[in-house]
From TrEMBL:
<dbReference type="InterPro" id="IPR043131">
    <property type="entry name" value="BCAT-like_N"/>
</dbReference>
<dbReference type="InterPro" id="IPR043132">
    <property type="entry name" value="BCAT-like_C"/>
</dbReference>
<dbReference type="InterPro" id="IPR001544">
    <property type="entry name" value="Aminotrans_IV"/>
</dbReference>
<dbReference type="GO" id="GO:0008652">
    <property type="term" value="P:amino acid biosynthetic process"/>
</dbReference>
<dbReference type="GO" id="GO:0005829">
    <property type="term" value="C:cytosol"/>
</dbReference>
<dbReference type="InterPro" id="IPR018300">
    <property type="entry name" value="Aminotrans_IV_CS"/>
</dbReference>
<keyword id="KW-0663">Pyridoxal phosphate</keyword>
<dbReference type="GO" id="GO:0046394">
    <property type="term" value="P:carboxylic acid biosynthetic process"/>
</dbReference>
<comment type="similarity">
    <text>Belongs to the class-IV pyridoxal-phosphate-dependent aminotransferase family.</text>
</comment>
<dbReference type="InterPro" id="IPR050571">
    <property type="entry name" value="Class-IV_PLP-Dep_Aminotrnsfr"/>
</dbReference>
<protein>
    <submittedName>
        <fullName>4-amino-4-deoxychorismate lyase</fullName>
    </submittedName>
</protein>
<dbReference type="InterPro" id="IPR036038">
    <property type="entry name" value="Aminotransferase-like"/>
</dbReference>
<dbReference type="Pfam" id="PF01063">
    <property type="entry name" value="Aminotran_4"/>
</dbReference>
<dbReference type="GO" id="GO:0016829">
    <property type="term" value="F:lyase activity"/>
</dbReference>
<keyword id="KW-0456">Lyase</keyword>
């Protein structure tokens, strides 16, 4: 595979291809000590930029990272990357690392890159028949699950299981059988007209799309609450849908080979989400 030639902003400079490098002494490169945000760009404008940056900065502070560049610098970097790549509908990623140990003053490593949307969308999200499987690898998010860290191995191994099974996403399940979230998405089911989603207290990522969907439920008068979801309840649900900034709201047609009968609540929430995108960007 060729090294991608797209423009990447690294620690203040725009570079491409072989020139896009991070020091091997950086803790992000050595040990996966990094945090990132992935957000959607509509018509050249990043959506929910402030909320994503807030999650990044709060996690960085909580985990003792050097202070990341100011959000205005990162927004300038994002705009530079988008303009230089000629990208209007895209997914942008902002990454910060714990930097090089011993460096004084402490400075985090930082890069911003973007990809055209088409390369990121799930096949099933495009065709309207998305599918998920349950990962067979027991998942316990621990104390880091609520931070969006670059230590992605556990998520990527599960994602690969999903891809090998021809699914768009793999759902992460504890050893006790509680379904928690997808490898890059939050999980919702609809049972008897009520929208249910696993609680943040389970250690899952506090998804920004999850929060927007819960607000949309309140506005539309759709009953919604957090509750533990045993995997049997997911396969037996009337509807199952996943949310993420990149994919938006994705009603599932199949979970672990079982057909999911309904999708109307998910579609309604997807439309509401589209409405808030249109009103903001
Ligand atoms: C593990 C995990 N859960 C949930 C999400 C969805 O979060 P958001 O809606 O903020 O994109 C992601 C996003 O990548 C994720 O990696």
């Amino acid at each position: 595979m060729r090294i991608p030639d797209r423009p990447i902003w690294i620690d203040g400079r725009l570079c491409r291809g072989e020139a896009a490098v991070l020091s091997l002494f950086d803790r992000g490169a050595r040990d996966g000590e990094g945090l990132f945000e992935t957000l959607r760009v509509y018509r050249g404008r990043p959506f929910q930029w402030e909320r994503h940056l807030e999650r990044l900065v709060v996690s960085a502070a909580e985990l003792g990272f050097p202070v990341p560049p100011p959000p205005s610098t990162l927004l300038g970097a994002a705009e530079e990357v988008l303009a230089s790549g000629g990208l209007l509908d895209a997914v942008i990623r902002v990454t910060v690392t714990r930097g090089i140990p011993g460096r004084r003053p402490g400075r985090c490593g930082c890069w911003v890159d973007a990809e055209p949307l088409g390369s990121r969308l799930w096949r099933g999200a495009r065709s309207g028949s998305a599918a998920a499987i349950f990962s067979r690898r027991a998942f316990h998010p621990g104390s880091l699950g609520r931070h969006k860290t670059t230590s992605r191995l556990i998520y990527h191994l599960a994602r690969d299981e999903g891809r090998a099974a021809g699914a768009d996403e793999a759902l992460l399940v504890t050893a006790e059988g509680a379904a928690l979230e997808g490898t890059s998405s939050n999980l919702f089911v609809v049972i008897g007209g009520e929208v249910l989603t696993p609680p943040l207290s389970a250690g899952i990522l506090p998804g920004i799309t999850r929060a927007l969907v819960l607000s949309a439920c309140a506005e539309l008068g759709i009953p919604a609450r957090e509750c533990a979801l045993p995997r049997e309840q997911v396969v037996g649900a009337d509807e199952v849908f996943l949310t993420s900034s990149a994919q938006e709201v994705v009603p599932l047609s199949r979970v672990d080979g079982r057909e999911i009968p309904e999708r109307s609540v998910g579609v309604r929430l997807l439309e509401a989400y589209g409405g808030s995108v249109a009103a903001t960007v």
